[in-house]
Amino acid sequence: MNLAIVILNYNGKALLEQFLPSVLEYSQQATVYVADNASTDGSVAYIKEHFSKVQLIINTQNGGYAKGYNDALAHLKEDVFVLLNSDIEVTQGWLTPIIEAFKATSNLIAVQPKILDYKNKDYFEYAGAGGGYIDALGYPYCRGRIFNVTEKDTGQYNDTRQIFWASGACLALKKEAFVKAKGFDEDLFAHQEEIDLCWRMQQQGGIIHYIGDSTVYHIGGATLAVENPKKTFYNFRNSLLVMLKNNNHAAVWAILFIRMLLDALAAWQFLVFGKPSHFFAVFKAHLSFYSLAPKFIKKRNKHAKKIAYYQIKSIVWMYFIRKKTTFIALNQNKK
Length: 335
Fold this sequence. Notes:
- The structure is a single chain.
- By secondary structure, the protein is α/β, with parallel strands linked by helices.
- The chain has 2 domains: 3-218, Spore Coat Polysaccharide Biosynthesis Protein SpsA, Chain A; 229-304, no CATH class.
- The chain is 41% helix and 22% strand.
- It contains 11 helices and 14 strands.
- Strands 1, 2, 3, 4, 5, 6, 7, 12, 13 and 14 form a 10-stranded mixed sheet that branches. A two-stranded antiparallel sheet has the order 8-9.
- A hairpin with a 2-residue loop joins strand 10 and strand 11 (149-150).
- Helix 6 packs parallel to helix 7 (229-246), helix 7 (229-246) runs antiparallel to helix 8 (252-272) and helix 8 (252-272) runs antiparallel to helix 9 (276-303).
- The mean pLDDT is 95.
């Protein structure tokens, strides 16, 4: 089994200086690529000078995560693509459990390792933690992270488990499944594109696993900080688009209506807490959703299939009303 580790870079020279050495040291089973999204900070020249073992892929524009990876992966021949954020520190032996998982399970199409917080290494990191799920309304949450609450890693998720989506921060994919799904949806640009991809790949058959025996550390927000309203815009808009595109149930229209109401409440909360830029980001996200909805309805009609996609009806209800702040607490009583 041949592996390609592909790091998408946009003006991330400092991150490459910090994290690329550990990737090379602990990933000798794979070929390491850096796909550059038209950086202007000297990243390409730096790699050429200091990392002769790294294969460079030069994208002609910054197409975000989705187009950037689609362009980068188009001509790679390896059996498995490991998409790795530039702000991730890998650990010794991290690839071995991933390789073994793909060899042992023929219908395994994607894998995510345990993702811990680089800045606080005893805790899970927001973007993926111990594997991802969505509720009936399409809100994402993770084992080890619900909304902004992250759990301390005490070994509670040191297992292998089927999940619904694997984090794009460190995402191992079978090339065959990725190609069959026609890659990432470039209309999403960035954020939640991995949820969309995982949903579509499962519609075509196959399962996704979290592998707790493999650990990486993620800074998170190194490219786009949580405080940036652009992140709010993409998260709110793309969550709606992913639900419209992939949820092939008649109830999707009622779900989207409820989501709109809850988004409005979230927007007003931003305003109350003195974050007007985020308030307007939600408003702009809805306008963008409306403009893209006809296109996404066509995508929905073309490929969406009914599959079971949720375990919890409402993570909002469980977290804010029932005060369930851990994944284990959620599953003690799902009512």
